[in-house]
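Quick bug: C-type cytochrome output formatted oddly.
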Amino acid sequence: MKKVGNHNSISRKLFFSVALTLCISLTSFSQTAAPAAAPVAPAAVATASGGDPVKGKELFNANCAACHKLDAKATGPMLRGVAAKHEMAWIYKWVHNSSDMIKSGDAAAVKLFEENNKSVMTAFPQLATTDIDNIIAYTSEPKAEAPAATVGGPVVDKAQEGSGVTNSVILGALALVMAMLVVMLVLVNNVLRKVAKANGIEVAPKETTMPIWKAFAKNQFLVLVSAIFLLLTGAYLVYGFLMQVGVDQNYEPIQPIHYSHRIHAGSNGINCKYCHSAARVSKHSNIPSLNVCMNCHKNIAEVSDTTATPDHSKAFYDGEIQKLYKAVGWDASTQSYTGKTEPVKWVRIHNLPDFVYFNHSQHVNVAGVECQTCHGPVQTYEVMKQFSPLTMGWCIDCHRKTEVKMEGNDYYTKIHEQLSKKYGVEKLTAAQMGGLECGKCHY
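Here's what came back:
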């Protein structure tokens, strides 16, 4: 009988060719999507008072937002629809000098003063009547309705929605094609076997070979080289593991109240040392007390719509501000403290061993090191994390590279002159100034 090769190779090639073609075509088809229509921005509409709400918004944010909100009571009353409560002539007088109106005994002025905890409104004589008209036009705009959110609903990809083809349809089609190919492969294999049997053709049996592990075990050189390689690899991995003990780089815990450095230090440009004031004068940097937060959030009960991100909605940020209010015992409706406070259990992120001495004031105040040098670009962090490894090697490397700033720093003048002559350099590094001495950082 004739002996021929294995016919299964032909069927395998046919199977993989058809499957590859179908996968490429279906993937290309699934990526086709209808372009989304660009949103149309609504035009600014002037109100009946003749003011411009766009200019009014700018004036409101610059002069009124510190004490007033459009839709909630703050230090002063909410201002949306205020034009319907008072005549424009009365509003002009009130904005220009509210104290005179209260002293004159104006009934509406006295009532407003009493209703708002006798808070005296700042006089704005510099605002023209046209400026006040613009502010009133802004406060007279109807409140924008928030889009209804589907709680727990699936997120629909607009590109797929426009194409009319979903992932389920594509996966179902691929599964059907794969099943058909498997059936075809079985049928072709059976037909080839029957044809070979009818023509007296004997399919060559598969030759038996020595298992690879037996061949490897018989080669003593390969066994020796592999054993040495495994020992060296194991030692390297154990060393690397032990060197990472106590190193918490990129540690990013969830805090009880979400605080976004991206918003505060980034978008709002708040200086790091405004909140962490102890870093300038103390060994330790402080966790800001909640009264520092309330310096701003007494009048900021919600964030702007532009603050929201795909991961954190406006409602999420507003809810975190309410957690702050609950912790300090602040009642936003009455603009007063209730006296009921709750401690906030912050999770510590940066933590050095007890035998390591590090002084924030020496680095921040004397050396003028920027906070981002050690803590990374915190102005971009949504959740604070440990940026640097804080290892001994990292500190030593910084001392070897960082030059001592002498501008306006009389403390190091004498020793700098002596050591710069000794080392023959114009500017000394922290290491040359003794920054590598063991006693500088260890007790």
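Actually, after a second look the formatting is fine. The longest helix spans residues 167-198. Closing.
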